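Narrative of activities, Objective 1.

The group set out to show that a structural description can be obtained from nothing but a protein's sequence at a throughput compatible with the screening campaign. Below is one input-output pair from the validation batch, recorded exactly as produced.
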Amino acid sequence: MSTTEPSLRPADWHRRFCRVTPWLALSGDLDTFRDGGDAQLTEWIDNGITHIVDLRGEWSDESYVAERAPDIEYHWLGTHDDGTGQSTEWFDLGLAAYRAVRASDGCAMVHCHMGINRGPSMGYRWLLEAGVDPVEALDLIRTTRPIAGIIYARDALAHFHRTNDIDPTTAAAQRAAVDAWFDDDHVDVAWVISRVRRAETI
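Output recorded for this entry:
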């Protein structure tokens, strides 16, 4: 799938609610305008969101959510989005949030700013932990959220291999399959981000 095709409008997906599984949803962040943010938060609650996992190192809506929806459990796991990779510690914290969600039979909104890289990459790590095949997990995220670049997916896969003692042969085969998937199904992340930013300035 090409993300530069005219039919795809990245800005339309920025804050769209994307249900991946009964316990995982993806989106961009809450609108900074109160009416828009309130409407989004209501949509999330109406769709069963019990936890928010906010991955933005640059911002947090924890106080905003606490005021308007105090029953939602908020996890702020802020990190960068500079393309250099994500740390073991970040994925460890993400798995702690995953276990809290699953233990409570809840549903998490996992998001970053635009819902392109950090959020989908952590969502990918959760799917791996749930036993989803690495390539099937990528397909699921991309089908659900077409603008997802998932550029930290390889970091997530490496973390999954380390923490689950995956044997070297299986790990190598999975890495190769993921590499092939990205070769065949590339998202032009720079183009997607530019279109979302353009809409934000209008």
